[in-house]
Fold these 4 entries.
Entry 1:
Amino acid sequence: MAPVEFDVTSLAAILPPGGMTLVSGCSAESAVLADSIEQAGEALGAMTFSGIFVAGLNHRTWLPNAASRMLTFFMTPELRASRAAVDFLPLCYSDILSLLRARRPAAALFMVSPPDQDGYCSFGTQVDFIADLWRDIPVRIAHINPLMPATPGHRGIPFSEITAWTSSEQPLLKSADDPHDAVSSAIGRHVAAYIPDGATLQTGLGKIPGAVLRTLVNHRNLRLHSGLVGDPILDLIAAGAMAPGASATVGVAIGSERLYSELSNPVFNFQPVTVSHDPRALGSYRKLVTINSAIEVDLFGQVYAELTPRGFMSGPGGASDFARGARLADGLRIVALPSDAARGRVSRIVPPGEGAGPVSLSRMDVDLIVTEHGSADLRELTYQDRAAALIAIAAPEHREALSSAWDGYRQRL
């Protein structure tokens, strides 16, 4: 059956009732489709929606009526406010993919570029899960957005395989590049000291990852293999720091209009989760360096990255997948964070077991912890030496309290 152009007011008649619907999130969230879901309201019944949503970027709840539910793996303030209708699963990316395959969504709502000369519609800035799953989803509903760039790498979906479509222009959701400051710049310099020419990097979005990438403009033959890419990659491309060819393998782009306008550059290679988060693919790289952020690190070297004072922000995400890949590659696993918070009142290096929430990365998943005060190389250290190395990079005003806490704790060892 040929794809059918539909009026957004008739979406309830196309969606299968009662099942799960996978929706585009991140920078590819469709306001047209979200509005249509809201307008359908009670007609949709007890449906479940699921996707990848980013706090501060994605504000829709995809909850059209009291019987509907949201299955999410990341929390936004809007979803937290609707917690009675929200199922939050703290899963790593490989397990998210396994869960979605097992639950077999009945429908997908996604944004794509217009079809190319071969009839393919690119998934554009969000390739991650939909590119792996669309063939097994019976009902495929597309918002064809002329402003969505056709990104290099995964070809996308043939227009002929789309069930129903609508077309309208919508600017992609944007995220301002975090301005660097003295703390993030110092962290970036400390991390850069461990990155050789020819390295393959994994990192995410935010002030610290951006600061790290900006320190590398004089490096050469760098590669990126990551779930996310933002504006700082453009500085590396402009400086000639990236290796020739398709040297940036990513699943999602979130950034400014400048980033979106340059995604046709053949340096980019957009691929689904089965590539971007595959430990075996990561394990094939030489000089792989993973760089992830954290909320707190304890004196054992355990990393806490999910629970904030405002509540859960996410599950473990992709960090554990990348840690496994770096282990296979005999690479280097770096966790970077400021030494303190709340204007210096709170240390982000904490006594053993006193981090907030669950452990996101175990002490076996991390090689280096970096703050603005330096780096703690935890490899092959005793517990005593680990604690001493971490206290040395804590904020100076908190080191005495940490030393006292460790002295009390080690009596139990």
Note: The chain has a mean pLDDT of 94.
Entry 2:
Amino acid sequence: MRVMKTVNKLLPPKLWDKKEEFYKASIGNEWYRNVAIIQSEFINLTFKFFYLHDIKSVCLPVTTGSVTSPMGLGSDSLPVKIDLFGFETFLADSMQFHLEYMLRYINKGVHYVMPTFRGESADERHLCQFYHSEAEIIGELKDVMKLVEQYVLFLMENIVLSCKKEIITLAGTINHIEKVINVIKKGIKRITLQETIDILGNEQQYFTNYTNPSFRTITSLGEQKLIDMFEGVVWVTNYDYISIPFYQKKFQDGKTGLNGDLLFGIGEVVGCGERNYDYTELMESMAEHKTKIDGYEWYVYMKKHFPLKTAGFGLGMERFLLFIINHNDIRDIQLIPRFNGTNIEL
């Protein structure tokens, strides 16, 4: 691998902390200008990639009655509830359900890039509003994992070519990107959740163990440890089934799910999974996850009358860009910041 000398990099202005005056301080700022250019290239490359793979772009609403993160077992985020002209609805936390629906029209595959809303507070690793690049295809977990690897490699290789100057301005180097590109080309290591526990030891700093019901999840420190161990990028698959959303298919062992997280940068950047095939699988999963049918009647109907073997993924744009600029605070790359419970004048 060619090693490029690291140069002095531009430091982030941390203007997101000036919530009421952000628009005054940020206009013309060099940090945000470079981020905007890289972000634009990410979007252009995303649509180009899916066009080349004959996966169709779709336009979807930002409101939904069927959240992919219902409260209860398997939830990894809090939905954002709003009153829309007297009707209770939710802002999109993911439009994966709607991509499944659109796949019944366009069976080559569908994708979108659109905003996502979460109920948690923002911090170094999380945003209240971020952009999702999501896709759904006909196939199994292995098929969507292959697509993810092709997509991420395409993004990295091309964004380095078109935005090299901007990346070096913010990151000081492109070595980290070239390193991961080489690992992807050689083949990304795939390990199960249980294998990560065997490797790291079931230590509290690396894993959180829940008892009611019983399941394990990886901490951010655990993710970073794995990233360091596997040359900057690694797949973790087969999470405890009860810890993942009800729409994911169960693995043949009856205990884990057919899902995978791609870890690089600050941690999970892509999450993917194979979906329940039909009505029977869906009903069993909803019962196990204690998820009520209310709000999911249409989804149940679709699975009953139009069963289809599909798999999909979601990539967080800001987390991907954070890796590209080799930075560790996701709030620094939100061009127009949004924080739950804060009224920002922009």
Note: Residues 261 and 271 are 4 Å apart (CA to CA).
Entry 3:
Amino acid sequence: MFPSEILVHLDHWQKKFYFNFLILKKSFLKLPLGKRLEFSFIVFIFLSYPGQNYWQTLILRNQTPQVKAASISIDSHPYPINDGTPPPLTTAQAIFIFEPDSGTILLEKNSNIKLHPASTTKIMTALVALETYNLDDILTVRSGEQAIGHSVKLATNEQFTVKNLLYATLVSSGNDAALTLAESYPDGGYLNFLKLMNQKAQDLHLLDTSFSNVSGIESLNHKTTVHDLAILTKEAVKNTTFMEIVGTPSITISNVTGESKYLIESTNLLLGQVDGLIGIKTGWTENAGECLVTYTIRNNQKIITVVLNSTDRFGESQQLIDWSFTHHTWQNLN
């Protein structure tokens, strides 16, 4: 069987082929010995029959290599091994725990079921904004009061730096701040910003993800999976500004004149409470349930934990994180 760190990179059809092969192999081995011999003889006759079979017409010649062999080194990373202790029981509909360096999956539950991501959407919103703007670019709030859902209550026509809007988006999960980042996109506004989010999802091979808004409001076509959120988070943690922001418990931001100030407090109750935890994003809507994406480092060992549609996202995520580090040892391939 493929190890989990390889399986996670296979696409849908590769996985389907692989598991169908296992099913055929199992069925073949269940046949009586006589039937297996008979089947093997038929296959032998078929391959031996004269014709344009590729393997029959293939001509092998001894030739001097035209190029030198490449010197290849594999950068291996320690990977976690479970001591046999099962994970804690949870209410979450879907779970994915992932070691990002080796690509090892520690735990997955309903990893490819499409669910509402709620405000975990803002991970992608922030990444696109970071690729689009400079941090000191100044943007104007156009329709802050019209933002649906949780809001920082930014006043229309106020101006903020992109960095302060990112704090409001990621720390306090302000839908009005996310809306301002998208509406201010200079090449086509909100709709084209949304296109960039979906394009980045394709670029990262998030095959089960589609965005129809920038804040996580429930929509029929606004879906993702715990697997895709884990891969997205792996990309996000590479950005130092993103990591600085999501690791902030609280901060006061102001508009560019300094006249209006806003206290921004993290919606992630585990931040500062769980050893090694750094952000990353909470989410909640009625149908999405409680959602949480976290990134934790202990003794240079890293895990990304994604929980969707839970009734206790903080308690269950903490249990899963503790289980991951307590009941796994990191080992090297060599």
Note: Residues 81-331 form a domain with the Beta-lactamase fold (CATH 3.40.710.10).
Entry 4:
Amino acid sequence: MPLKKIYRSIRNELKKVEKLLGRILQNTSNKSILGINRYLLESPGKRLRPALVILSAKAAARRPLRPQRLINIAAAMELIHMASLIHDDVVDHCDIRHHKPTINYKWNRDLSIVFGDYLYSLAFKLISTCDNMDILNCISSATEELCEGELIQVAERDNLSLSKRRYIVIVKKKTASLFAASCRVGAMVSSSPRLVMEGLARYGLNFGIAFQIIDDYLDIMSSQDELGKPAGLDVRVGELTLPLLYLAGYNQDTFRKQFVKAQNNKDDLEHLKGILINSKAVKKTKKTISDYAARAKRGLEVCRDSEFKQSLIMLVDFIQQRAN
């Protein structure tokens, strides 16, 4: 099912988010910054985080929402996500994203680092307009977790003894924390009861874990044409992801040798992919994805039935389809 259909119930709000992002990123007299900002806007991505803010707010709402506050927060979450991707591309030495050269490649590493910081500052300036310390604390904590997750992941590179538990900690912090915060602040904007707020946060957390495992699975199982960025990037930088951790569990010594060779040779990477395809690791990975997807849906049991709740359910199905 295409995202456009899932987003149908919040189409107008997402258009406002897009317009706000455009205004913010083009509100500079510096031609150099303006050029980078415009380039960034040319590749919008899926806009999952702003969609989750809006859908969660509407799924939880018991009374009319303050629309501008909702749009501001949704746009801020996307700016934080953009900043994290730019920094990711630097540490991962990634030259392509969304089928286009990354800012890191088109300009340079130094500029990319500072530009990511610049986007974080724009996000928190926007959040400050909401004049709500609970919302600020929620998003600040999620951003701290995101950065901590990235730090742990980089620190654990080439650790061939990485445990599944440690991997899930990284995923929760680096990816799922921002998804959980997107859903939680959506519920906060709607002044929903704590039970509903916690249920939506659980939805976002488990949605985020499933989303990242799928991304990690596709990184090795798909091509650059399918991904819009280089395939096998995790292996090349020495990061063990869940499919590879499951594969390592069957024959640790053979896996170690093949993983090290695959880091530096495309043919060996393809060989590793072939081993993975013919192992039980793929089935175990998909089972884990399904488990987290089911947990995400259970988090929505606290919400009344509505088209917005149904859209949140459909988003889970959408990301699961990517791994099939």
Note: The chain has a mean pLDDT of 94.
